[in-house]
Amino acid sequence: MEDTKMANGNGWIRAACVCAALSLAGCNCFEDLFGIDDDDPVFVANSPAPSASPAATPPPAPSLLVIAAPRFNGNTGRVYIFRGGPGLVGTLAAGTADAIIDGEAAGDYFGDGLALADVAGDRAVDLLVTAPSHEEAGALNRGRAYVFAGATGLSGILGAAAASSARIDGENNTDNLGRADGVVGGRLAVGAADVTGDGTADLLAAAVEHEEAGATSRGRVYVLTGGAGLSGTLGAAAASSLRVDGENDFDRLSTLAQ
Ligand SMILES: [Ca+2]
Ligand SMILES: [Ca+2]
Ligand SMILES: [Ca+2]
Ligand SMILES: [Ca+2]
After folding, report:
1. Contact in structure between 32 and 44 (CB atoms under 8 Å)
2. Which of 32, 37, 139, 229 is such that its CA lies 20 to 30 A from the CA of 127?
3. Residue 256 alpha carbon to ligand 2 centre in Å
């Protein structure tokens, strides 16, 4: 196989490389592959010249600053998202955030649990928020964990239900899925770690007041496999790949290793 002069003058290419693109006008790949006639002229339209050095890697996007006010507006709860960067300095009112997410209903305590991690597996950081006293109609304080996919792209004032890509509901009344009780450095109600070992972070959520029949408030930790399947409205029991229960009544299992 011979080197072939490109008609646009960009230089020399190997005929074998041209045949990788079967749709190129003038490329007689049958001939080139089987060695019948390697001397045919080959035209490669707009082939880029080889770059002398690889393109510079763009700097990573600044981190997000996420702040929660679980008692905002009658304990509805509100989460503020500021995009980080050199301009984020001084004294700011929380309401000037780049994005604001409001809980669904009074008494939900939206924002009690917070974490940032890519649980959708698309390399864009997702925001995890819990509302431990949220319930759907006919239930009581089951708690709900939300995934907001691609959190860096959020802007304006948003509602938690509509803006979230996934919602995970507690199993039973008064489970309080995602309750952190505002304990700084203590109870971790929601988080992410690749527990399944497939390369994508999984969602971790704790329901401190959950118990199985005959017990009281032992607590249960759930692992929900990360990835594209983590979307829509899900039940914590059915959607989780792993559940870990507390040993004793009132253990209120909640701390998650990451
Ligand atoms: Ca993501
Ligand atoms: Ca409630
Ligand atoms: Ca995983
Ligand atoms: Ca309970």
Report:
1. no
2. 139
3. 24
As given in the structure block, the two tokens for residue 226 are 């990360």
Distance between CA atoms of residues 18 and 27, nearest Å: 7
- Give the mean model confidence (pLDDT) for residues 27-35: 40
Does 101 score more than 80 pLDDT? Answer: yes
- Ligand in closest contact with the CA of 152: 1
Residue 51 in this model has a pLDDT that exceeds 70 = no
| Confidence at residue 53, expressed as pLDDT on a 0 to 100 scale | 61
As a three-state string, the secondary structure of 56-99 is CCCCCCCCEEEEEECCHHHHCCEEEEEECCCCCCCCCCHHHCCE
Q: CA-CA distances (angstroms) from residue 240 to 35, 150, 167, 217?
A: 58, 22, 13, 19
User: Which ligand does the CA of 225 lie closest to?
Assistant: 3
> How many residues comprise the chain?
258
E strands within the chain?
3-5, 12-14, 64-69, 78-83, 99-102, 113-117, 126-131, 144-148, 156-159, 166-169, 190-193, 202-207, 220-224, 232-235, 242-245
* Percent of the chain whose predicted confidence (pLDDT) is above 90: 68
Distance 109 CA to ligand 2 centre (A): 9
- Nearest one of 200, 201, 245, 199 to 222, comparing CA atoms: 245
Looking at the CA of 116, name the nearest ligand: 1
